[in-house]
Amino acid sequence: MLAVAPKLVRTNRILPSDRAVHDWYRFVLSFPPHLVQEYLTRFQAGSSTLVLDPFCGTGTVLVECKKRKIPSVGIEANPIVCFASRTKLDWSIDPDDLLRLADEVCDETDRALAEEGIRDTAGLPLFAEPVDQNRLRRLPEEQAALLLRGSMSPLPLHRTLLLLEAVNRRKESPCFDHARLALAKTIVFGASNLAFGPEVGVGPAKQDAAVGRLWRDNVRAMADDIRLLRSNAAVPARVLEADSREVGDLLPPLSVDVVITSPPYPNEKDYTRTTRLESVLLGFTKTKSDLRALKQALVKSNTRGVYKSDRDDALVEDNEDVLSLASAIEKRREELGKTSGFERLYARVTKLYFGGMTRHLSSLRSVLRPGAHLAYVVGDQASYLRVMIRTGEVLADIASSLGFRVESVDLFRKRLATATGEQLREEVVVLEWPGWQFDSRRPTVREGNNYSTIIEHIFLAKYKPGMVAVDFERQDLVKAGRKLGVAVPKNLGDVIYSFRYRSTLPAAVQDKAGTGKAWIIRPTGRAKYRFALVAECPIAPNASMAITKVPDCTPGVVAKYAFNDEQALLARVRYNRLVDIFSGVTCYSLQNHLRTAIQGIGQVETDEIYVGVDKKGAHYVFPVQAKGGSDRLNVVQIEQDFAVCAQKFPSLICRPIAAQFMADDVIALFEFEQSEDGVRIASERHYKLVPPDEVTEKDLESYRRRQAD
Question: Domain 1-90+238-263+373-381+390-435 - what CATH class?
């Protein structure tokens, strides 16, 4: 049995200061290198350890690791920021080659400007003659619409696009990415009209800017740094462009020794706006769809990134601290009479933020080695109607509920709240992962773990031989934890969620099931649950099933930015009409994420609802459950889907379907039916989406034989 989590230790130690070796491109107010150095030393990170930064931004942690010859890996969802990190970690290029490329580009750009009658910016004043605005290069309308109005004046934009064209003609050069990164910094801090405060805005307009000269200066700074750092070029360091909430699907189990990171804070800072200008100019964001896909891959920390399909708030539905914060924010909004769409989202984004961090920490556990140390740099916030959010405290409690040991919460620095003048703490939440057993890529709760200990105690205290149902309530989790002397999780819902979707019930519970039977947990009302004895019906893909190739109709931009999660799975199923193919019925997506209350069950959710009609005119409803990554399908979800259809669509034929990602991008689809023994799999098919020319004549002949059979 694990010991009770120690009392949170809060320190007032101010960490020492230091200066970075290089700063090619990074966010304003990003956390400084000296902080990374402090915790690398404290955690005794060395050449035999792997350091992870799951919110790596522009790579401060990874650069410091590489300088110290420590292997590292980062995760970053923003493409332009991911590009910056990767480039900052590439110290293998020849700095003289980089300088020669800069000379060629500047000469070529100067000649082009001279031909257009625009003065060279090497002399002063920069802008001395009128310029025909109609001759200046502009962004396409769709891209220009993504930018803040006035982000860049016409002439600096013209110079930038001209220089970018010259750089792009050198794509084969090993220095190409470094040249583009130098331009990204030049765009933001030299050529643009942007101003940075709590949020990015537009300052005084610049009539002109010495774009070429500023870019060359940034290239020289890169070259100077690379001369100092080339000896460490071979130190392993990589960056994954992905969602940090899915870290368990991105890295091998038991591979990470140290985590140092600075996740977003719950505030109104839109991190995609901070990098919007350079992202658009360099071609990383071209459409509104690109922007939406990016926002959906981020932990929700501001109202501009919230969508109806977001569901991370469900993971903190039992966290009293988070619910209290959300309630206080909503109460303040009503008192002040604030009614705008964004203000109405303040309470929800608070829950989504902490739900997203819960999802991240939960997924992270599978990749951590026992004894791994973690440092999360977070800050207090009062952005939402001046309701104070003590981010470090809440995050520490969530980590504790997930099995982490909280070592301390160190004060990093203090700052003044813009609206109130109140001092806000920026802190480092220091954690340790004690470890648990693993089954392949999915953690299995072992006996002695808090969750397992609590759920086992509740079952055995109430169970009597011959029982097929054991009722309990959410409050029983708290009582059991206190009685056993183990840490009571703040997020009580994660205990139930864990045993329904991630882990098996303890052996002491399953031993009471008997041959061919299994215990499951069903909801029976608000904060009420039931251990139910059912016929064993594991829902897992049959590896021996034949695979049917289907021409992939997924739009290119969706495929480019999709992840290996349930949202990506639902999108692929929808765009490729796999429900139609699987069911033999013409189907249409009716609604995503249908949430409703079912009598006798409580609140339930179905990932997607399809309706359809067959050739005889019969109408159908297809509730679809999807699982990506390491989560697994559960019979309780299918039971709930039958109940939803019976209550919401009583006149339609209900055919529940489930989808599961498999290896090699194969999609398994299941259809279910109700029998005397409960829910059963009625049919199963496996599909693989491929380019049309990969469906061969041999494949088609095989499918024709199936049809004849």
Answer: alpha beta
